[in-house]
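At this stage, I put together one protein's amino acid sequence and its backbone structure tokens, which the following lines show:
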Amino acid sequence: MIQKYLLAGLLCTAFTSLYAQDSTTTTPEEPCAKGLNVTGSLDVYYRYDFAKTKANNLTSFTNSQNSFELGMASVRLEQNFKNVSMVADIGFGKRAQDFSYNDESTLAAIKQLYISYAATDWLKFTAGSWATHVGYELVDPMPNRNYSMSYMFSYGPFFHTGIKAEITQGNHGFMVGITNPTDFKFVPDEGLNRKFFIAQYSYAPGDKFAAYLNFVSGQGLDSSKSNQIDLVMTTKLSEQFSLGYNGTVNTGKAREAGKFGEGQSWWGSALYINYDPATNFGLTLRNEYFSDAKSRLMFAGIPDGGSIFATTLSAQIKVGSCFTLIPEFRMDNASKNIFSKSGGAGTKSAANVLVAAVYSF
């Protein structure tokens, strides 16, 4: 009920603001087809697992072994007209397909498609589909300093489709919205009456520190309820050193016999240590601890669940602002035998190397 009232309020406020401004406009109409900004990227990679199996990959976008792989080609269109803007972000390739896993199987996917309306300089409304506010990492490889993804990214939300309002007051930011069930652009009939509530509080006093407290809550198509609280912090210690942190807790309740059961949680925490000794070279060490003690995810079917500690060291070798080469070494250590040795026997650890090439324009 609260979600319905919030949705109605967001729509009424946005439409009222739009009508009020248009009713006082006396200048002639201006053509909107100008100032189109086109950017994009493409990435390829090679990954080798020391146990010679891709089954040891339990995170997103790098499910391969001893193979040269195409990641994704992306084209992003952006345009502003007065106080209205639009973004159309299209991806082609396996990475885009995995990102939009609920859509019909296709190598071309709409990653983002939304229209924003700035009612004032401190209030903006957005409708459409956009990448999630939850987490430190993003679907596109360019902003990420590690090429392989964290467990928190892989099992958290990817995107939201709906409407949101963003308020900016000085160093503080607030966002609230109502969306479809997580990761659905097109909702099946059984999920049409189910909505998720999203929110964010941000604090950015300058370019040396920023913090984001994120929230997602709702009922999925399988009738289960989930709530996720997520914290992201970044800080710049010097011109060479910076840190990033991501911590998240997801609690789900399954519905059985007409009522919801006890909450079952998974959680994770990751520290990103970034060192840039030169403008064309950088290193990032990601240390992530991921707990699935309730056997909801990769420890499903294993009594008492388990946990994983993953260490990833990545280098960024840059040529100008367009090309980045990312060699990477990753070691995952679990509390249970969820990985495989080369002979097929279970083991608690897995290691791999990869090299990725990313070109952006």
